[in-house]
């Protein structure tokens, strides 16, 4: 019964394989976590509070921005606005996995999403483009990234003073390089190339002229609009009556 | 409205940040469950997914220092040449470190 309704079966073996696969990138995430832990205690958080934040939030950029707003008191509305703006890319990332996630029961679907972050999403989304369904990387890869993030924060709050500035070692570029490698990895149709160019231009324009932290969503939606209006011939043939539905 | 950073206040703030982040993780999928997936939506999702990556990376390259530009360019070249992500990423990071050291 359950199988009939939710056909996606998570393979334990594949989850373990994805855990190992994202282990190398997780070592770099430890360095980021340490940088966050150090920043958090310098802003006045207790070590355990910083570790708690990394455990429950698990979204690096927004955590840095949040502790940046720390003082003797914190204004709630600006904090919520900044955290939401930085993390709003999750809305689109989750939506892009929906064709796979709908084949999981709601309980599993939303549990999996708790581990959704840039690196494991990038792998899953790129593989989906080349026809592979891989939600195991969200679970296995997400777990290793999460543990690395918490462990890094722990290192940072207790031993942060001993750490080198991660920036001089180029460690701040790990995620950027990883995402770029993913972006260049998939196969590219002319449609995707046009969408990416539009996304590049509009994200730059948004970064220059719109409020901070809106550029990812603006660029992604602009690129998505290309796909919405420009369909591949193949998919048009697959469902001739989609005109009415759209 | 402000929250004092007492122990209880900080725990409340962490709860708020967690809640906002969980809403972003769940929200997109929740909204999609009301959308019928047809080829047009599928096409939107696919181009949007590639565009998310680009929209993160391009402003990063433009706002970064020489080190970040070096990291991204070296990663791009090695990735296109070898199609292997790990060597490409490692070379990119090494390039950033090298440029900043010089």
Descriptive report:
Chain A is an all-alpha fold. The radius of gyration of chain A is 20 Å and the shape is globular. In chain A, 73% of the residues lie in helices and 1% in strands. In chain A, helix 3 runs parallel beside helix 11, helix 10 runs antiparallel to helix 11 and helix 10 (118-129) packs parallel to helix 12. Chain A contains 16 helices and 1 strand. Chain A folds into 2 domains: 2-186, no CATH class; 188-246, no CATH class. Chain B has 102 residues and is mainly α. Chain B is flat. In chain B, 47% of the residues are buried. Chain B has 4 helices and 1 strand. Chain B has a domain at 1-34. Chains A and B meet through helix 3, helix 4, helix 5, strand 1 and helix 6 of A and strand 1, helix 1, helix 2, helix 3 and helix 4 of B.
Share of helical residues of chain B: over 70%
- Uncertain segments of chain B: none
Number of helices of chain B: 4
Rg for CA atoms of chain B: 20 Å
Q: Tell me about the largest β-sheet of chain B.
A: none
- How many distinct beta strands of chain B? 1
Structural class of chain A: mainly alpha
Number of strands of chain A: 1
């Amino acid at each position: 019964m359950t199988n009939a309704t939710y056909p996606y079966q998570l393979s334990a073996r594949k989850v373990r394989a994805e855990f190992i696969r994202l282990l190398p990138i997780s070592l770099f995430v430890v360095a980021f976590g340490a940088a966050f832990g150090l920043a958090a205690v310098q802003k006045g958080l207790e070590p355990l509070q910083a570790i708690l934040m990394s455990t429950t939030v698990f979204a690096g950029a927004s955590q840095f921005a949040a502790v940046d707003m720390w003082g003797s008191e914190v204004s709630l509305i600006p904090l919520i606005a900044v955290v939401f703006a930085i993390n709003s890319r999750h809305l689109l990332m989750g939506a892009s996995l929906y064709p796979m996630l709908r084949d999981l029961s709601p309980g599993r679907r939303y549990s999996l999403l708790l581990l959704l972050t840039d690196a494991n999403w990038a792998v899953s989304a790129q593989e989906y483009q080349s026809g592979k369904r891989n939600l195991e990387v969200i679970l296995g890869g997400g777990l290793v990234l999460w543990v690395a993030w918490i462990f890094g924060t722990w290192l940072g709050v207790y031993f942060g003073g001993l750490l080198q500035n991660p920036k001089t070692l180029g460690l701040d570029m790990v995620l950027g390089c990883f995402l770029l490698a993913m972006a260049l990895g998939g196969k590219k149709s002319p449609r995707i190339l046009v969408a990416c160019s539009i996304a590049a231009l509009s994200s730059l324009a948004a970064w220059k002229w719109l409020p901070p932290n809106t550029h990812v969503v603006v660029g992604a939606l602009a690129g998505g609009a290309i796909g919405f209006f420009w369909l591949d011939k193949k998919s048009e043939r697959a469902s001739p009556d989609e005109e009415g539905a759209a | 409205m402000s929250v004092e950073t007492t122990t209880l206040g900080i725990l409340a703030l962490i709860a708020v940040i967690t809640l906002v982040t969980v809403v972003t993780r769940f929200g997109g999928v929740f909204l999609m469950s009301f959308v019928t997936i047809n080829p047009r939506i599928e096409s939107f999702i696919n181009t949007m997914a590639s565009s998310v990556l680009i929209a993160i990376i391009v402003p990063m390259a433009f706002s970064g220092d020489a080190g970040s530009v070096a990291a991204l360019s070296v990663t791009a070249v090695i990735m296109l040449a070898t199609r292997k992500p790990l060597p490409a990423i490692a070379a990119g990071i090494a390039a950033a470190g090298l440029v900043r050291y010089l």
